[in-house]
Amino acid sequence: MDRVRRFREEHPLKRAAIGGQEWEYIAAGRGERALLLLPGALAVADSTWLTLPHFEERFRVIAPTYAPVLTMAELADGIAGILDREGIQKAAVSGGSYGGLVAQVFVRRHPERTERLILSHTSLPDADRARPMQWALRLLRWMPEGLIRSIFRKRLLGLLPRAPETAEFRAYTEEVTRRATKREILALFWRGADFLVHYHLRPGDLAGWPGRVLLLMSDDDPVTPEPARKALQALYPKAEVHVFSGSGHATALLQPEKLYEVMDRFLE
């Protein structure tokens, strides 16, 4: 956890009241262009501690902590409010896993704020997948906070292979999930259900948007099996696509150099 502690010291959280909610975020880096890094299911700004340092020499980088709002629209609008606070008109937007869901909503609600889009190891809305989530939410509401934290922790750790390269991030995940509140975890799932049920994304949604899209995938990602990956490519037919091999849902941990090479080339 030494690198995490050092990252937190060098990247203190900023706070702002936006839309009646208290938001926390990291604003770092320098450069004429901006990069918005959207966290995954950990939902906290410092979960970008591995990625953000790679980009902050060239970009103004914003990484938000997700406020416990219940809809993706509220989340996307709050993040746009953070850009306003920082005086950023437009940013390249990168979202992985859960952050990829957020990114797809953001670019549709705020296309004029989105320079280009990176979607990593993520998927599309699917009402059939939402039903078990909605059922689980009804049960989770009545569970004690400690039990909900435990379920959440096991779910996220289950996505990380046990390997030397993932040890740091496993320790970080343990720490973050042990202090997550019931309200924050339930809000995370409610937003996921909102995305799966209420969003109907189509290839023509971004017809008037001039930006470019990069899709990052892994050929053995258990979260996005082959049908989900094909559906994503069909939704973004003009996107650049890069498929990693053997890195599952943890490409940023297992193959970081290859990942950054692809992202750097796209962001040039």
Give a nutshell description of this structure.
This protein is of the alpha/beta class. It is built from eleven helices and eight strands. An eight-stranded mixed β-sheet has the order 1-2-4-3-5-6-7-8, with helices on both faces.
Characteristics of this structure?
268 residues, Rossmann fold, 8-stranded mixed sheet, single chain, alpha/beta, globular, 19% strand
Protein described:
The structure is a single chain. The protein has 268 residues and is an alpha/beta fold. The chain has one domain (2-125, 201-267): Alpha/Beta hydrolase fold, catalytic domain (Rossmann fold, 3-Layer(aba) Sandwich), CATH 3.40.50.1820. 46% of the residues lie in helices and 19% in strands. It has eleven helices and eight strands. The chain has helices at residues 2-10, 52-55, 72-85, 98-109, 127-140, 145-157, 167-179, 182-198, 226-235, 251-254, 256-267, and strands at 14-18, 21-29, 33-38, 59-65, 91-96, 114-120, 213-218, 240-244. An eight-stranded mixed beta sheet has the order 1-2-4-3-5-6-7-8, sandwiched between helices. Helix 5 packs antiparallel against helix 8 (182-198). It is globular and about 45 Å long. The model has no long low-confidence stretch (mean pLDDT 95).
Spell out the blueprint of helices and strands:
Blueprint: H1 2-10, E1 14-18, E2 21-29, E3 33-38, H2 52-55, E4 59-65, H3 72-85, E5 91-96, H4 98-109, E6 114-120, H5 127-140, H6 145-157, H7 167-179, H8 182-198, E7 213-218, H9 226-235, E8 240-244, H10 251-254, H11 256-267
Parallel strand pairs: 3-4, 3-5, 5-6, 6-7, 7-8
Antiparallel strand pairs: 1-2, 2-4
Helix pairs in contact: 3-4, 5-8, 6-7
